[in-house]
Amino acid sequence: MGPVPAVAAIRLAVRTALADHEPGDLVLVACSGGADSLALACAAAFVAPRLGLRCGGVSVDHGLQDGSPERAHEVVELLRRRGLDPVESVAVTVGRAGGPEAAARAARYEALDHFAERYGARSVLLGHTRDDQAETVLLGLARGSGARSLAGMPAVFGPEDRYRRPLLGLPRSATAAACEAEGVEPWQDPHNADPAYTRSRVRHQLIPELAAVLGPGMPEALARTARMLREDTEALDEWAGREYAACQHAEGGLDARRLAELPTAVRRRVIRLAALRSGAPAGTLAASHIEAVDALVTGWRGQGPLQLPGAVEVRRTNGRLAFGETAPTAHSDGARGQQLTGAASK
């Protein structure tokens, strides 16, 4: 894709992503200064005023590299020159939970949420491309996390559909071409080429090897697969939501007999929803947890209660699954609780 067609394609993608906005709404662009987010910011600066929208930006400084505060300041100045307002840089502290990539992501979204709420933004635009989607699908496949992970990144998510990913249908090469056409020089994040990071190895080693064996259209095929799986997953989630309400037991919890009548994919989604609503953190609730709880429905042999992440206890009693806080004393059924562990799934 040439520079001029790339600019047009990105502007069209942004316009489509903002189609549900009202005049006067504020749109923010999360911009690191890399080619993807920089091309997105330039397109949003062009499109938003023509839709009667305000456009601002935020640059998150993770503090993980030398010179990151100065680089964030440079991004802020560039965005202001492009007419974005308000624009700020936000410094965050990256923890260790879940590994460096997950911790940085959690800190970033916390900062973006704060900035969006502070200014009353209608949406926050993120610069993930089709190539990022392909990488996400491969990472999910490696974890064995099921359809939810293989469905990749959603185009729209968050509270009141706050976060938008307009570029998921476009290749990474389009953003580089657009930056060239816009006359802006993107920053090259050394972490993106650091083999210490799993995503970097997928990007620079695995995907080129797969493309050499399966053909250059492999990233597009993976992204297309993710889109179809997301459609299926959303349909199953909607079905599970209806069944969750229908499976409520008069004494609380879920009716085990009714659960047993459901297809496995729906039943396990109902169990997952019940666990989440009982306080289990989504980021640590693994497929192995759900399968263990499912065995209380389909393979009931008098097992004791199970301990899920977030101090959530699940036990089967009187034909129902009861979800509650972990009891500090012995359990009434006389069986010892099982502490479950496992890698988290998306």
Account of the 3D structure:
Helices cover 49% and strands 13% of the residues. The chain is α/β, with parallel strands linked by helices. The chain has two domains: 221 residues, HUPs (Rossmann fold), CATH 3.40.50; 93 residues, Uridine Diphospho-n-acetylenolpyruvylglucosamine Reductase, domain 3, CATH 3.30.465. The protein has a six-stranded mixed sheet, sandwiched between helices. A five-stranded mixed sheet has the order 7-10-9-8-11. A hairpin with a 3-residue loop joins strand 8 and strand 9.
Provide the gyration radius in Å: 23 Å
What characteristic shape results from the CA principal axes? elongated
Percent range of helical residues: 40-55%
Strand content: 5-15%
Number of beta-strand segments: 11
Low-confidence stretches: 329-337, 341-346
Q: What is the number of independent domains?
A: 2
Task: Return the string of H and E elements.
Answer: HEHEHEHEHHEEHHHEHHHEEEE
CATH superfamily of the largest domain: HUPs
Count of helical stretches = 12
Ends distance: 32 Å
Side-by-side strand order of the widest sheet: 3-2-1-4-6-5
Instruction: Name the CATH architecture of the largest domain.
Output: 3-Layer(aba) Sandwich
Average predicted local confidence, pLDDT: 88
- Indicate the CATH class of the largest domain: Alpha Beta
- Determine the structural class based on helices, strands and strand pairing: alpha/beta
Binding site for ATP: 32-37
Domain tRNA(Ile)-lysidine synthase substrate-binding: 254-321
Organism: Actinospica acidithermotolerans
Domain tRNA(Ile)-lysidine/2-thiocytidine synthase N-terminal: 27-205
